[in-house]
Design goal:
single chain, 64% helix, 426 residues, two-stranded parallel sheet
Length: 426
């Protein structure tokens, strides 16, 4: 019974060495082509480059995937539930409008115009509900293609420049530089995975709620809710293009893996800021949680500076340009957009109080404590300087009696004029 191949379970360069009697080349000695170990070094270098290429490919796929989690067609089971609800809601609104117009038909032309507008917008809304998944799918493919063109198309783009510098860079043979670029790619991959998850979930949610938003058009063509929905969906779709801000610097750092890593770190901050601004409702919360996770795991000032640039300090209510920005809590932000949607249906909702959350109020008090203390001390010093005589009265010096303090001095004519002559009383 023949023995099994001892090299059958080995892969890569090790298998070639096993098949060639543990020589790195195709039967050559281990100390050829520049000395012993050159084959092992070359194999390790190839593996590192393959790892970097795999990380770059995964990074590109996470930032702008070709396929989204959202339904691609209107016959998707999940989308059909919302489509049924939206269509029936639009028809119910149209029926209500028809009944109202019939009861107030004596008003004439205004009711006829309202009936015509409601009928037309209802038909447009029902047709639009079925076309939203296809439009989003085509738009996602266009965004993916555009992102690939902008970041991995030629030698002047970021990802292609990193691939080129791994082979031809000035420090491509430096193990430290390779370790730095691999570490930067892994960190960028973590941020890209966070961007991928938040974007995909956000796009899925906004596509599924499209029938409910479009049904609001049936009342008479109020497009405020549709515009708000479209702006947030487009913000999610085009969020990866925030990385275009690093494109002008690609040629400046080309040829050095270390400088490529610096540019990747800047891209990490942009990805975190992309989540902060691009993800509706929960973006600031998610970016703040990522910043807190990084700051709790490391004391490196560079890492902390990057996450602070990507997720700045903020308060959760009102804006003030001289203090950290204020954002709405997820519930308040969703409440405001729900108010826009209800307004399109003609429903008024109660406004919530505009005050800071408890934690934000505590943070604001702590942040402003030094300034408030300085203001208190300055007011106290000013009060002491204005009232020194009242607190420390000085003794009066003996001298000629003068006019009483506060008495009005007599005019010169009154001082020189003699007293008027009065006749004696009988």
């Amino acid at each position: 019974m023949p023995d099994k191949d001892p090299c059958g379970l080995i892969k890569g360069i090790a298998k070639k060495m096993c098949e060639n009697d543990w020589e790195p080349g195709g039967g050559g000695s281990a100390d050829t082509d520049g000395g012993g170990g050159s084959g092992i070094t070359a194999g390790a270098s190839d593996h590192v480059k393959d790892l970097a290429e795999a990380l770059i490919k995964t990074l590109k796929g996470l930032l702008a995937p070709k396929r989204a989690w959202a339904p691609e067609t209107a016959d998707n089971w999940l989308y059909q539930q919302f489509l049924w609800l939206g269509q029936h809601l639009a028809v119910a609104i149209l029926v209500c409008v028809i009944v109202v117009c019939a009861l107030t038909a004596w008003q004439g032309a205004p009711r006829l115009r309202q009936l015509g507008a409601s009928t037309g917008w209802t038909l447009a809304a029902v047709a639009g509900m079925a076309s939203v998944p296809g439009v989003v799918m085509l738009l996602n493919q266009a965004v993916s293609s555009a992102f690939t063109t902008a970041f991995d198309s030629d030698q002047s783009t970021l990802l292609k420049t990193i691939s080129k510098d791994l082979d031809q860079g000035a420090d491509s043979g430096n193990p430290v530089a390779i370790l730095i670029i691999i570490s930067a790619l892994v960190v960028a991959l973590a941020f890209a995975a966070l961007v991928f998850m938040t974007r995909q979930l956000g796009i899925l949610a906004f596509v599924c709620m499209a029938p409910l938003v479009l049904a609001s058009l049936a009342r008479g063509g109020d497009t405020s809710a549709v515009r708000a929905w479209a702006m947030r969906l487009l913000g999610l779709m085009f969020a990866p293009f925030a990385l275009l801000l690093v494109s002008p610097f690609v040629q400046m750092v080309s040829g050095s893996l270390v400088m490529d890593a610096v540019l990747l770190i800047a891209a990490d901050a942009l990805m975190l800021r992309m989540i902060f601004h691009g993800i509706p409702y929960f973006g600031p919360k998610i970016a703040g949680a990522a910043r807190g996770l990084v700051e709790s795991r490391t004391a490196n000032p560079l890492a902390r500076a990057v996450v602070r640039a990507g997720s700045p300090d903020f308060y959760e209510q009102e804006n003030n340009p001289r203090t950290p920005r204020t954002v709405d809590t997820p519930g308040r932000a969703a409440h405001q957009d729900r108010g826009v949607l209800f307004a399109a249906y003609g429903i008024k909702q109660k406004q919530r109080s505009s005050r800071l959350t408890t934690q934000s109020a505590i943070d604001k008090t702590r942040r402003e404590a030094p300034r408030n203390q300085q203001l208190v001390e300055a007011r106290r010093a000013a009060r002491t300087a204005v009232q020194p005589a009242a607190t420390n009265p000085q003794p009066r010096q003996p001298g000629p009696a003068g006019p009483r303090p506060g008495a009005r001095p007599l005019a010169a004519s009154q001082q020189s004029a003699p007293a008027p002559h009065r006749p004696p009383r009988p």
